[in-house]
Design brief:
The protein is α+β, with helices and mostly antiparallel strands and 75 residues long. The protein has one domain (16-73). The chain contains two helices and two strands. The chain has a two-stranded antiparallel sheet. The chain starts with 15 loop residues before the first helix and ends with a helix.
């Protein structure tokens, strides 16, 4: 099992074999969360697809916001 060290800026490098198996590429975003039940930090691979952005001041509906949240959750 590969080991990474946390640097002084609290950054961690994901080992190459893990990045390869998870399909994580340069520029991807990953979800990092703490699993209370197991007491572990979990890094989830990115969901593929482009993030939706809106222009500042654009009027968006509640339905568009909810749809964006669902897409972000991978639902």
């Amino acid at each position: 099992m590969p080991i990474s060290r946390v640097n002084r800026n609290y950054q961690v490098t994901i080992p190459k074999e893990v990045r390869t198996r998870a399909g994580i590429e340069k520029g991807d975003s990953v979800l990092v969360e703490y699993d209370e039940k197991d007491g572990m930090v979990v890094v989830r691979p990115p969901t593929k697809g482009r993030r939706t952005t809106w222009k500042l001041g654009a009027k968006i509906t509640l339905e568009e916001i909810e749809a964006g949240i669902e897409r972000g959750r991978g639902s």
